[in-house]
Amino acid sequence: MKNDALNYNNIPFQALFSEEMIFSRVKELGLQIANDYQGKNPVFVCVLRGGIYFFSDLTKAVPILVELDFIQARSYLGTESTGNVELIKDLDSDIEGRDVLIVEDIVDTGRTLKFLISHILSKKPKSLEVASLLFKEGGEEDVGYPIKYIGWNIGKEFVIGYGLDYDGKFRNLPGVFLYSEE
Ligand code: 5GP
What we know:
By secondary structure, this protein is an alpha/beta fold. It has 4 helices and 9 strands, in the order E-H-E-H-E-E-E-H-E-H-E-E-E. It has a single domain, classed as Rossmann fold (3-Layer(aba) Sandwich), CATH 3.40.50.2020. It has helices at residues 19-36, 52-60, 111-121, 140-143; strands at 14-17, 43-48, 67-75, 85-89, 99-107, 127-136, 149-154, 159-160, 176-178. It has a 6-stranded mixed beta sheet, sandwiched between helices. Strands 1-9-8 form a 3-stranded antiparallel beta sheet. Helix 1 (19-36) packs across helix 2. The protein is globular.
């Protein structure tokens, strides 16, 4: 696949979730979340970088007062089997005693999320919930924490777009696509 073949009207990947599908699912999740946090002033935490579009759309779809913060972690290179994760960027705000919602792009093995949950819980929030646009089958066991808001459950395929990359590319595709080596 050549980069210059990438064209929003002619994307050479199979679409899994279109922009329209994502828009309407994010609206639904937003209303559900707004309902659950009625009268509260939660902190929504964007997991960089994959979560940017979901975070951006979801926070606008939640008609309550929210505060925004950002966190970033990555798996140690070459240690997939041990699953070590390191923090690259911590939260800027003090979340002690606050209602916190982590906003993730995708949960695969769940290792990244498990790490982030334990890190954030150590800061003593009043409550902690998770929203993930996508959830790959088999992940929840590894997370060991309920994921309250899920856009869609998917199979084990590798997906790109709407924040998700392959080798740093394709994040800005407007929908979610199945990646294939064409
Ligand atoms: P986990 O720690 O749950 O195995 O994976 C966490 C991270 O791996 C995700 O936040 C995401 O950055 C990346 N990842 C997992 N599955 C996929 C996928 O299908 N596509 C892309 N682009 N990234 C993925």
